[in-house]
TrEMBL record:
It comes from the Bacteria. InterPro entries: RmlC-like_jellyroll (IPR014710), RmlC_Cupin_sf (IPR011051), UGlyAH_Cupin_dom (IPR008579). This is (S)-ureidoglycine aminohydrolase cupin domain-containing protein. Pfam families: Cupin_3 (PF05899). It comes from Aquamicrobium lusatiense. Residues 40-112 form the (S)-ureidoglycine aminohydrolase cupin domain.
Length: 116
């Protein structure tokens, strides 16, 4: 069977992976993650949907990530203190070296593409 060259980002039928920030990274709350990986390629390319319940944790990006918020509200704050509120319809890129915190105010769901 040949590989499909056009793939829709449809997570129905994909069992989500459960997760959470490492305990030492949590600043407040008890956030719980669900991740639906729709695409995973050799060389470190990933695409899918991620969701988190409310809470705040420290983030450190070694990878490049494109995000598009589908629902919810989060605040992403860089080390320098610049806070950005993201909500449904917002798209952004986090580059390697970004450090700061991610705070989920309302359960947030995003589409992502990650390149290691």
């Amino acid at each position: 069977m040949s590989e499909q060259k056009f793939l829709t980002l449809d997570i129905s039928g994909i069992e989500p992976e459960a997760g959470a920030p490492a305990p030492e990274r949590i600043i407040s709350g008890a956030p719980v993650f669900r991740t639906w990986n729709a695409e995973e390629r050799d060389g470190g390319l990933y695409a899918g949907v991620w969701e988190s319940t409310p809470g705040k944790w420290r983030i450190e990006y070694d990878e490049w990530e494109y995000c598009r918020i589908l629902s919810g509200v989060s605040v992403i704050t860089g080390e320098g203190g610049e806070a950005r509120t993201v909500r449904a319809g917002d798209s952004f890129i986090l580059r390697p070296g970004f450090r700061g915190s991610w705070e989920v105010l309302e359960t947030t769901r995003k589409e992502y593409v990650i390149r290691l």
